[in-house]
Amino acid sequence: ELLLQLTHDLSQGRQPLTQALLIVFGNLPAIRAARRYLHNDLNRLFGGRHLAVTPGNESRRAFALEQAVQAFYRAADAAGPVNRSHLDMHTAIRGSLYRQFALLPAHAGDFSPGFYQLLQASGMDAIVRHTEAGGTFTHFTCEKFAAQSATLELGKVMPFGANDLSLFAATDAAIRAWISDAPLPPRDKAPVDYFLVEESIIKREGEFTLNLAANVENFTALPAGYEIARQAEKRWVVQARAPYILFPNAGVATGQRAGLLLRAAALRLPQPA
């Protein structure tokens, strides 16, 4: 809904634009069906991982988006060197103790202070940084094209037309400033909390048990020693240094992530050269 309004304002000349901009609506057939996906989780198929699954809607879409991004950056680079950025906006299945948060892909280099400022201005309550490679769209653009990339989790999923867009006003204002080289809006919330992924809970073949109630929210701190998940060959036990649970979901496909355990960390921004 935010992108529809932004696209409309751009087409009518009401929104300034000083950047090369690619707008993507991720998975239109699933959106029309009011489902997360039809065959495979699209946001696990990038970086060529779509080649390893049975062909379907999402595998074709992942390939098409990879090609679109490559063509976009090639065209943008033809006009001269550019700073590449990518925001991938999502909604979450579960409720969250941090209503809006960003996920940064694992990245050998640093994210720039300016990119963190964009995330802060966007109203993010927390930032989570991955520590392992993944098949997400943002990991693909970061790894393949050195983009400053982040997934924005903007709140619990609601049907189109039922969202209170005022809850996304900070994100909308920051994006509009970002694409027009205008000053970022001031942050009017508490400082951002920062987390690192300590461990991924991966569902393998065979019986898998996730010992969490359906109403446990993202970022809930679990007691040390608690067995959060079990599989035939492995138990996941909460450690005191990493007690926070993110994206718990026992219903994921075999081989996919059934949850993340996080630890709190201090955000250390790189110093300007």
Automatic annotation (TrEMBL):
GO BP, sorted A to Z: L-arginine catabolic process to L-glutamate; L-arginine catabolic process to succinate
Main enzyme class: hydrolase
One function term, GO molecular function aspect: succinylglutamate desuccinylase activity
Keyword Metal-binding tagged: yes
InterPro entries: AspA/AstE_fam, AstE_AspA_cat, Aste_AspA_hybrid_dom, SuccinylGlu_desuccinylase
Keyword Hydrolase among record annotations: yes
Keywords: Arginine metabolism, Hydrolase, Metal-binding, Zinc
Residue intervals of the Succinylglutamate desuccinylase/Aspartoacylase catalytic domain: 1-177
EC numbers on record: 3.5.1.96
Domain (AstE/AspA barrel-sandwich hybrid): residue spans on this chain: 191-263
Superkingdom classification of source: Bacteria
Pfam families in UniProt: AstE_AspA_cat, AstE_AspA_hybrid
Cofactor requirements of the protein: Zn(2+)
HAMAP family linked: Arg_catab_AstE
Protein name: Succinylglutamate desuccinylase
Organism, as annotated: Klebsiella variicola
Gene symbol of the encoding locus: astE
